[in-house]
Description:
Strand order of the largest sheet: 9-8-7-6-5-4-1-12
Shape: globular
CATH topology: TIM Barrel
Number of domains: 1
Order of helices and strands: EEEHEHEHEHEHEHEEEHEHH
Distance between the termini: 11 Å
Structural class: alpha/beta
CATH architecture: Alpha-Beta Barrel
CATH superfamily: Divalent-metal-dependent TIM barrel enzymes
Radius of gyration: 18 Å
CATH class: Alpha Beta
Number of strands: 12
Amino acid sequence: MYKLKSSITASYFGIERFDNGGYQIIRKDKEFCSFLEEMIDCGFEAIEFETAAPWNKEEEKENYPYVKQIAKKITESGILFNSVHLPFSISWWDFASPIEEQRKGAVEVFKRAVDAYGEYQPNVYVIHPGIKPQTPEERPIRLNQLAKSMSEICEFTPKLVCIENMVNDGLLNKISEAKDLLNVVPKLNMTIDVNHSFLQKPEDYILEIGSRVKNLHISDNDGLLEKHWLPGNGIINFNAVLSALEKIGYNGTFNYELSPTKNGVTLKETKQNLDNLFKIYNQL
């Protein structure tokens, strides 16, 4: 019988936008602690801690002490502190920037993020590859820059660094692109986001990447846009996904990356969904 540890992504930082174009980073202390308690009540075994707030460098200094506090709470709760999803889609987290100074800056920001967790280190750091290319000519340049960045950060931490496949024309949207990068950076691994895999089926992506798949983002879509729906509400064949995971010997967490508030999905419903997916698969 095939079964994986139940896990879900939980956010601590958020953003409040103002009509004048400004914003404020907010820390969701009570919400996060309540979410953690409910996770335990529902039987979740692991967590992915999301810190993907679009802060600037000054906000980073202000907020990183809270990162360590939350990591400590997770560790003391008994939940497996499996992974951290680091910030993305902002210029100072662009590992593939053609501008060398910006690329190096992103690597240094990554190092500070790892250091911020102190003794409460997760098993996995999940990162996005960088801002998508604007022209076909820019793509190989960005991929080359990305390889340099990944080599540097994989040497910095003994923890698993997992780069995520991107949607549509983002970097690593194709299996071949991901395999080329992994061949160049032997210590790098992958988070497969099944909701991002449009050009190839997610099960094919998993089978081709094989043992370098060390983390998952699980949700469903309509085949046209990423939706972060609960599995079963879209078109992804999760029996095929589970079969692929079992074939490659994947034994990490089965981590849901949903939009619970936006899509109205409860933790209880999510855990039931996970149990049903594996029950159906194991009956085949």
